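Components:
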Amino acid sequence: MAAHLSYGRVNLNVLREAVRRELREFLDKCAGSKAIVWDEYLTGPFGLIAQYSLLKEHEVEKMFTLKASRLPAADVKNIIFFVRPRLELMDIIAENVLSEDRRGPARDFHILFVPRRSLLCEQRLKDLGVLGSFIHREEYSLDLIPFDGDLLSMESEGAFKQVANMMIRMKREFTGSQNSVFPVFDNLLLLDRNVDLLTPLATQLTYEGLIDEIYGIQNSYVKLPPEKFAPKKQGDGGKDLPTEAKKLQLNSAEELYAEIRDKNFNAVGSVLSKKAKVISAAFEERHNAKTVGEIKQFVSQLPHMQAARGSLANHTSIAELIKDVTTSEDFFDKLTVEQEFMSGIDTDKVNGYIEDCIAQKHSLIKVLRLVCLQSVCNSGLKQKVLDYYKREILQTYGYEHILTLHNLEKAGLLKPQIGGRNNYPTIRKTLRLWMDDVNEQNPTDISYVYSGYAPLSVRLAQLLARPGWRSIEEVLRILPGPHFEERQPLPTGLQKKRQPGENRVTLIFFLGGVTFAEVAALRFLSQLEDGEIRASFSQ
Amino acid sequence: MDCYTANWNPLGDSAFYRKYELYSMDWDLKEELRDCLVAAAPYGGPIALLRNPWRKEKPASVRPVLDIYSASGMPLASLPWKSGPVVSLGWSAEEELLCVQEDGVVLVYGLHGDFRRHFSMGNEVLQNRVLDARIFHTEFGSGVAILTGAHRFTLSANVGDLKLRRMPEVPGLQSAPSCWTTLCQDRVAHVLLAVGPDLYLLDHAACSTVTPPGLAPGVSSFLQMAVSFTYRHLALFTDTGYIWMGTASLKEKLCEFNCNIRAPPKQMVWCSRPRSKEKAVVVAWEKRLMVVGDAPESIQYKQLTIQVLLDRLVLRRLYPLAIQICEYLRLPEVQGVSRILAHWACYKVQQKDVSDEDVARAINQKLGDTPGVSYSDIAARAYGCGRTELAIKLLEYEPRSGEQVPLLLKMKRSKLALSKAIESGDTDLVFTVLLHLKNELNRGDFFMTLRNQPMALSLYRQFCKHQELETLKDLYNQDDNHQELGSFHIRASYAAEERIEGRVAALQTAADAFYKAKNEFAAKATEDQMRLLRLQRRLEDELGGQFLDLSLHDTVTTLILGGHNKRAEQLARDFRIPDKRLWWLKLTALAALEDWEELEKFSKSKKSPIGYLPFVEICMKQHNKYEAKKYASRVGPEQKVKALLLVGDVAQAADVAIERRNEAELSLVLSHCTGATDGVTADKIQRARAQAQKK
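Structure:
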């Protein structure tokens, strides 16, 4: 059961069920035993909607990873390729099919494009002479699952304006072909990542944010160093230490995680120790259980308590791992520099800490994030400063990174200051991006997610809800790209009366990705404003 | 009362039968039916007749004529047959007439004799000719099965979505099978054929021998076989005069009948009354008809759905009636009225005597923005009738720009297709059009077209980055985009070139491009890299070891680690490594070598630009407290406490902190007071704190 999806006012489980049904229908179309050949990238997203057991029920007997040359031998009737619509994958598929044809008894080949069928790819298959080999060629729209599509991205400035236009047109195109439904969301906010390049550069300081910063969360899974998770009781100390990374799923189905994921990391410790006391008290209850009835009652609660204890142990271990990092001197120094930049201190000269990081060859990502952060917080770097950093980076990390730097410049993350004007202070003050009196334990403002910095994107969403963007028009002009609002009239039959106490539901769509800390800030807002905001993102 | 039984005749001992005419045929046949290829559509659909002059040996003196009649013999169409010899005729589920030619080409006609399209059953069929063909119906649609002159089978289970399947060979088959039929099991089409006493089942993977259960012995050949309309039942007629009836899976026998006639029947078909549970087989010889039956049939017939009824009305061009039915039944527009209007429009575009403008206007007036009407489908029909201009006009009414694109491409209006594709925002469509254009236009024109479409250009660049690097270069060249051209050559210097000379040359080209782009920084950096590459090559030659592709920083480090301090110095000077970084670099390298003597010399060479705390830190990292202490004393007052704590001198750290009256440092030292002997120090700090507060 996917309990974590049915929380909240908008039930996303319906969506999940729909995609599962679609998958089953497709599998049943290919009658007989089957092997699935996976585009490796898709195994993650698919894991979120279907376990292997579901595939097995529908006669999937083998699973392979899509690789060049021949497929491993499999005695099945159907071979189904689950792939993204990418040309290089088509080449591999063609190679697979051709070598399979030479192998002997004919199989049925099918192809399932995720999330879209592509004429371009089908043309390529045709050119390679294998298009006719596929009995079923279909698409499977896993749209709301992160999907990397660099080849298919719009590659265009102001993409969000185009997205909005397209949505308006799509509405016209689809009239009549769909049944009218009551809208679930009242507002839609499209945010282009270009508007707020600052936030993703800063180190996230929520619990979930830090897990992502340090270990990376992929499709809601995290891989952690196994040492801390070794079973406590061990006879021959250290010998049997697990070597494989510990893989944990993180979502709100886990009660404890739901409670702490969005907290500032500094507020997590106290929750964990409180929980520890509650749980051990609950286990102590067994001594008080005297009658058969009491014992029975205790036993019935046992599974839940044991799960809670396991969950607590896991998160205590994770918190310890994170604490090792956050209490290090270097983490502190880095954070200090970030916070100085974001509050507008010394952004216009070469920073000694960054220099030292380069000289000691700290990770290039860390260095680039800091340099870009400085650039964004200064509306671009002075040419001399910029050239100095670039030269230092090339000399230390290798000349090939001239391409890396060029890409950063194209993305606007790194740039020379134009006209010697720094707009950041105006933006910072108007949008109150830096809050000195941040309360990490009992936050009163979204700035707690970065211990002082309030993510620009979320601030924009907050101001849109109250009092509206008219109050900040001057800043909107300084921010990159145009902004606009569009009202979509509802057919009279679909207008509903709002119940007292029922709030507007806003769907926020990030074009270009979102950080966990931003999501935390949005969730915080939705509690604060007593409305519900759902965050979703595209890349 | 005997009028009820008057026309019943006895059949055997316990049954009677009667014969009466339902209706008489209106047709006036000129040909003998026996000389014609005949095809009657299921569910009382139309009947097609084609006089078959090819069956006789004599050459055709007159053109054969294809006649189409309604089920009651009303003439619907008549046209002279101008194509090649036809082997078989049949109606599809959509009431399209499929005419299978000897060369494997299948011509498709509408109910009114209008030519729709044609397709081929493949090369193998073309080479070996069609010996026999069957049109059959499955739940997917209608299929065609071909027996070729080479005694191989080719079939397509759905002519609407043509996929040819060549069936496996029957081992040792030298002559044509005595009879054969298609079966449909588990949604897959099979072929069942009889050769002598054997029955073979072909699925698309294998040929297997099958035996009907309970078949009387002595059979040396099967003369006829018939499968029921639902593919549930099968009847076999043997040369011993037996009729075997059973399930089509050949797993169960239903009954068997010896009719004592050994002559091959002309025809054998399954028949039954609607909703009857009894199934029967009718066998026909030249002058004899026999009904054999008694198989319980449990399936219910699927009724004609309202959709099929509407389709049939539409096919017969009874649009107003169809619309009235829709309105009466209150069908949703998309399934009902819209669909019929769309069909009407498709018919309208075929009226060649009306001008393009008038047709387009008439259609738009009637259809307007009716939801669910696909203008692109109508346009496609117009184009099919050779009316390209009309098609373009109709496409203008299509709101979904994505739908316009494929047809525009087909009509070779690629540039228009490109702008529509861009409008749709569907990048896949844009790519598709771009590749079309690329093949259609010469390179110059293609690039010019791209130039006018910035988004297409930027998408195409993306495509080239992955697929066609050389084209990418040409594109940058055309746009005078020297910056990207420079980046392109840098990438080439890493990916495409192996020899050092080639790499340097690529970098030179890149540097030139950067100069043109007025990107002095990149140009200079590139020249530095060329210099470094040459130098690394020389170092490898002279010193051995690996230097190529190390960064400058790592090159210098490697030199120091190898004991080539002079060369390292020289390199640092040549490339102007800033002093601070050079100190970090040397410090790190010497500590790694554990060359403490050299490190001390270095630390005294001049005043350290990075202070002395890093010296302390690095010595401690190498667990050399002795050396670390040397440097701790030289650390400036700001970082002294930190340094002293690092080397474990808590007492002295406390003294310094007290002296500096620095609260933060005092707490830091206090937090380090963990050892047994640190109690004194801790007290000292507390006292100092207390004193400071008094003041």
